[in-house]
Specification:
The protein is of the alpha+beta class. The chain has a single domain, classed as Double Stranded RNA Binding Domain (2-Layer Sandwich), CATH 3.30.160.100. It has 2 helices and 4 strands, in the order βαβββα. This is Ribosome-associated translation inhibitor RaiA.
Length: about 100
């Protein structure tokens, strides 16, 4: 799956990009018709420790899913967002099977 990583106002290191690619490749098990995906990383300018935001946007034929998570680390945020995305993709797949 093609994954585009965007960082807002900072640079992302290769280790994080590799982690994101590996984690999102696992989503193919749940729904194999993903067109492409975008991951946006943002830093929230607050004094709270939970200031790292990962937004996951996945395009499938006829629809687009967006999941946004805020955590202490980008890795944790990506993990939680990917878990939520798995559930959405499974629901989508079941819905399509029910209609066909």
């Amino acid at each position: 799956m093609k994954v585009n990583v965007h960082a807002v106002n900072f640079n992302v290191d290769r280790k994080l990009i590799g982690y994101v690619q590996a984690r999102l490749d696992k989503l193919d098990k749940y729904y194999d018709r993903v067109v492409h995906s975008d991951v946006f990383f943002k830093l929230d300018n607050t004094s709270a420790k939970v200031n790292k935001i990962a937004e996951l946007k996945i395009n499938v034929p006829g629809d687009e899913f967006i999941v946004k998570k805020q955590c202490k680390t980008f890795e944790e945020a990506v993990e939680l967002a990917a878990d939520s995305m798995e559930r959405l993709l499974v629901k989508r797949k079941q819905k399509i099977r029910a209609h066909s």
